[in-house]
Design brief:
The chain is mostly helical. Helices cover about 75% and strands about 0% of the residues. It is built from 24 helices and no strands. Helix 1 packs antiparallel against helix 2 and helix 2 runs parallel beside helix 18. The longest helix has 29 residues. The chain starts with 8 loop residues before the first helix and ends with a helix. About 50% of the residues are buried.
Length: about 450
């Protein structure tokens, strides 16, 4: 069905309720129900449950659920073993200034590039003690963690984002079969939002970019603790820094060797870590098993939110949300403004629906031929689509990466979301201006 402008109602309900209640799961659930009622109120709630069943059978969602579940179990093993704290304590002996603590966080996020979930979880867990020592608020830590998660993965061809996008580019005949990864590499310079998000966060770490109001307020209430006290209060464990580094190395190396398959890489790392910790007797096997289950439980809320975001995207598809927005842009904007217009419109959709990969699946088949029809550089147009998806993952207050970052840094979702939003909007503004100028530059 084509609902025209009414297709905007469900995502708007989600955003407004999210702002008013600061509750992600409930806002998404109500927004999805509103969408189901609008599609056919006479079939409600049967149509809602049917759409939910269809969504839960989505191959992409199943893959993400499996990856997140294994990541959750792996990270819980690392945290329970005390190796993440041992790694942080080891770095704490060599990091002497606040700036070096912030830069270490930024570079750690860059190095853990195979997947944004992995980056958000492992960087937050390993850097908490270090940033605490130098009076860095949890929202500022969360901002640096999130700003180096999806934006980094979106410009690395061998990341999960790169592999997924490369397949879409081949399917939509922008590049020949087998050339998608190379084509994705050519698109990296046009992913303006990801580039600006990384540059701005690097500027914040260096102190070149000022702290905005909300972030400054959070920074002013942090109480510093001496390094000796932090080290003394760290739980005693048989684990050392190598017991954190080795699982991360297996995870990153395995993912790369297995052609960017994050699921196989995560499974390999989990099995290795379980065997390694058992062999070293860091914890009894029974405790390791229980901790793995606890890690799975910790992922239930993020996965529930993620599943509802996929459902909201499906409802948007049923109501013709993305084609309506793109058609409106095409019909009401001249060619020179289309790259910036598409970027801003799709950024709004990605932010409100918490859809990145789903957005790519729907928008790329429309934007690629549209760029040819309007005689616009296809790299610029596709770059605008990719940037919009990164913005949604990075900035949305109920995105999976936001939820995982909040969890790993022990920062509330609302504090993280609203303190980082000005920086995301700053990167959005710079990117939009460059897409506007890009019509003549490229």
């Amino acid at each position: 069905m084509e609902s025209g402008i009414w297709s905007l109602v469900p995502p708007l309900v989600v955003v407004l309720l999210g702002i008013l209640t600061r509750r992600s799961l409930e806002s998404l659930l109500i927004g999805c129900m509103v969408g189901a009622l609008m599609i056919d109120w006479r079939q409600f709630p049967g149509n809602f449950l049917s759409l939910l069943s269809e969504t839960m059978a989505n191959d992409s969602l199943i893959w993400v659920i499996l990856v997140c579940s294994i990541y959750g179990m792996l990270i819980q093993l690392i945290v329970a073993s005390g190796s993440a704290i041992a790694f942080g304590s080891f770095l704490l002996r060599y990091i002497k200034t606040r700036k070096s603590a912030l830069l270490s966080t930024w570079f750690t996020g860059i190095l853990v590039f195979p997947d944004d979930y992995l980056s958000a979880l492992s960087t937050g867990v390993s850097m908490r003690n270090i940033t605490d020592r130098f009076s860095v608020s949890r929202p500022l830590l969360a901002y640096l963690v999130n700003a180096t998660a999806a934006p980094v993965c979106a410009i690395i061809p061998l990341s999960t984002w790169g592999v997924f996008t490369a397949k879409l580019l081949e399917d939509n005949q922008m590049f020949p079969a087998g050339q998608g990864i190379l084509g994705f590499a050519f698109l990296v310079p046009f992913n303006f939002y990801a580039i600006f998000a990384l540059l701005i966060s690097f500027g914040v770490a260096l102190g070149w970019v000022p702290l905005f109001k909300k972030m400054k307020e959070m920074e002013n209430i942090v109480v510093i603790e001496p390094a000796e006290k932090i080290l003394a209060n760290s739980p005693k464990s048989k684990a050392g820094p190598v017991d954190f580094i080795l699982p991360m190395f297996i995870l990153v190396g395995g993912t790369i060797i297995l052609k960017g398959d994050a699921l196989q890489g995560a499974a390999l790392a989990f099995v290795f870590t379980l065997a390694w910790y058992s062999a070293k007797n860091i914890l009894p096997y029974s405790i390791l098993s229980n901790q793995a289950l606890e890690g799975f439980k910790e992922m239930l809320l993020p996965l529930a939110i993620l599943s509802l975001s996929f459902l909201l995207k499906s409802i948007g598809d049923k109501m013709g949300l993305t084609p309506f927005v793109i058609a409106e842009v095409k019909n009401h904007f001249p060619a020179f403004i289309l790259p910036a217009g598409i970027f801003l419109m799709l950024s709004f959709i990605s932010y409100t629906t918490c859809s990145s990969w789903g957005l790519y699946t729907v928008a790329l088949p429309i934007v690629i031929p549209l760029s040819a029809a309007m005689n616009i550089n296809p790299y610029l147009m596709v770059g605008a689509v990719l940037s919009a998806g990164v913005f949604g993952s990075n900035a949305s207050f109920f995105s999976d990466c936001t939820i995982l970052t909040s969890s790993s840094t022990e920062c509330t979702t609302s504090d993280h979301s609203f303190s980082q939003l000005p920086y995301a909007l700053l990167a959005l503004s710079f990117a939009a201006l460059l897409y506007l100028a890009g019509y003549w530059l490229f």
